[in-house]
Write a structure and sequence with these properties.
By secondary structure, this protein is of the alpha/beta class. The chain has 12 helices and 13 strands. The strands form 4 sheets. A 6-stranded parallel beta sheet has the order 2-1-3-4-8-12, with helices on both faces. The protein has a 3-stranded antiparallel beta sheet with strand order 6-5-7, with no helix packed on it. The relative contact order is 0.14. It binds NADP nicotinamide-adenine-dinucleotide phosphate (NAP). NADP nicotinamide-adenine-dinucleotide phosphate (NAP) binds next to helix 1, helix 4 and strand 4. The site of NADP nicotinamide-adenine-dinucleotide phosphate has 27 residues, from helix 1, helix 4 and strand 4.
């Protein structure tokens, strides 16, 4: 049986759906039932339930967006830094392997192969870099799991959210048998406030940059596949291979969904950060070679994007909770 923490959330609910469709026995756990953020309560639960694996899809993301983490710092640290460490220690105490949902937002930019080696380029919108992005230059490289986070408290500037996620990874890395699965900008075919494709359609103006992104179902499938294959415990970047620019996504939305409106873009970073955002955003390219080297398959980002738009549907109404 797999114990699933944070099953009520956007990512946790996708894990629950995928486990159900695979016929894998699992038990969703909410803080309302057992306060798994407390070491003693979590250890008691592990001893009573005796799962074979644990998934941590719990964390604090900030609503409506990551800016909320700047004003809810205690919750951000509790959910993203302390909780993974608590889980790591509890799992180590009973010898339980587990997987932790982290984020690729601990990086900013990409790497560029040059004659003398590889250099980091923090700004993918810079005039000299933009043509490389547009032409998908093979010299433009994503961050691997071996690269130290460059958008974290140890490598500022960063958002408070990103800093808390990078510290969370450190707590996990130091203990036991665990996967760290890095998700980035989730999307799929279900319209809703957490879906990147919906967000783009609801913003009054769109921020243009380049990013590796994760189809929500592809992400949870790849994470579960790693465990089912007994791939080595390690950090894995779990994004759809490749990357997209926001303009490319907007063009796909216009072509497939025909929304009957024109999308407007922020003029530049200065205007975006002056008028629309409070804390710096991570925009980055990720390398998924390690994931693919395990034999786990995940489709290219263009394919996942196209299929999501072609099968676009409204969010189903929330099911009333019992009692
Ligand atoms: N959504 C994204 O854009 C995104 C991108 C990259 C990475 N991630 C990571 O993916 C994980 C899941 O994110 P999500 O989008 O599914 O979040 P979500 O919809 O807000 O759900 C997270 C769940 O975590 C539980 N939780 C435990 N401690 C919490 C705390 N201190 N504050 C708030 N919730 C807490 C809650 O479940 P109960 O109270 O029912 O137990 C909540 O339903 C997080 O670690 C997040 O950092 C998300």
């Amino acid at each position: 049986m797999i114990l699933l923490l944070g099953a009520t959330g956007y990512i946790g609910s996708a894990f629950a759906a995928e486990l159900a469709s695979r016929g894998v026995a699992h038990r969703p756990v909410s803080r309302a039932e057992v306060d798994y953020t407390r070491f003693d309560a979590l250890l008691g639960l592990l001893r009573e339930a005796r799962p074979s694996f644990l998934i941590n899809a719990a964390g604090y993301t900030g609503k409506p967006n990551v800016d909320a983490c700047e004003t809810h710092r205690a919750e951000t640290l509790a959910g993203n830094t302390l909780l993974p460490q608590t889980i790591a220690h509890a799992c180590a105490a009973v010898g339980l392997p587990w997987g932790h949902v982290s984020s690729g937002c601990i990086y900013n930019g990409a790497k560029l192969r040059s004659g003398t080696g590889v250099v980091a380029i923090p700004d993918l919108t810079a005039a000299a870099v933009r043509p490389l992005v547009e032409t998908r230059s093979p010299d433009l490289l994503g961050f691997t799991e071996e690269d130290s986070p460059n958008f974290s408290f140890r490598s500022p500037p960063c958002s408070f959210y990103s800093g808390s996620k990078a510290l969370g990874e450190e707590g996990v890395a130091a203990t036991g048998a665990a996967y760290v699965w890095r998700l980035r900008i989730p999307f799929d075919e279900v319209d809703g406030p957490r879906n990147y494709l919906s967000k783009i359609q609801r913003y009054p103006r769109v921020y243009d940059n380049a990013n590796s992104i994760s189809h929500r179902r592809d992400f949870v499938r790849a994470c579960l596949d790693l465990w089912e294959r007994r791939a080595p415990f390690a950090i894995y970047n779990v994004t759809n291979p490749g990357y997209v620019t926001t303009r490319q996504v907007v063009q796909a939305i216009e072509r497939v969904l025909r929304p009957g409106r024109r999308f407007e873009f922020w003029e530049n970073d200065a205007e975006f950060y002056r008028l629309a955002a409070r804390t710096p955003r991570s925009n980055c390219l990720m390398d998924v070679s390690r994931l693919l080297s395990t034999g786990v398959r995940i489709r290219p980002v263009e394919e996942a994007l196209e299929e999501s738009l072609r099968t676009w549907r409204p969010e189903p109404p929330a099911t009333p909770s019992a009692g």
